[in-house]
């Protein structure tokens, strides 16, 4: 992979399914250039597509299979859990967001693309949160 390694938050992936063509295109661009996620992201995607979008399981499985074909998947481990809890405490973030950040750090990433987390926040002097939908 050329350039810094990047991670993708669930909300960016979900824009692939959006009626907002601009955000869907932007999400596709990010995913094609930065294809790392965690098992946490897969779990959150399954949850949102089922509970909020009401998709049937066969469609959810197709979406998850497509995502796994495009993205490297970082596993959840006890070490990820511990690091995530420390991040949640130190930066006052949700446990779920912190688990994604911990997985990104363990994968050696330098950026996490997310619309929901604080744009520009630097985690552990290594990992920058970037909102790919902000212009300029």
Descriptive keywords:
four-stranded mixed beta sheet; 6 helices; alpha/beta; 136 residues; single chain; 6 strands
Helix content: 40-55%
Number of E strands: 6
**Strand percent estimate:** 5-15%
Taken from the alpha-carbon principal axes, the silhouette is globular
Order of helices and strands: EHHEHHEHHEEE
Radius of gyration equals: 14 Å
Distance between the termini: 25 Å
Q: Which runs of at least 5 residues are low in confidence (pLDDT < 50)?
A: none
Averaged pLDDT: 93
- Tally of separate helices: 6
Strand order of the largest sheet: 1-4-6-5
Describe it.
There is one protein chain. The chain is of the alpha/beta class and 136 residues long. The protein is 52% helix and 13% strand. The chain has a domain at 6-75 and 109-130. The chain has helices spanning 10-14, 21-33, 39-51, 57-70, 78-91, 95-106; strands spanning 6-8, 36-38, 72-74, 111-113, 122-123, 127-130. Helix 5 packs across helix 6 (95-106). The model has no long low-confidence stretch (mean pLDDT 93).
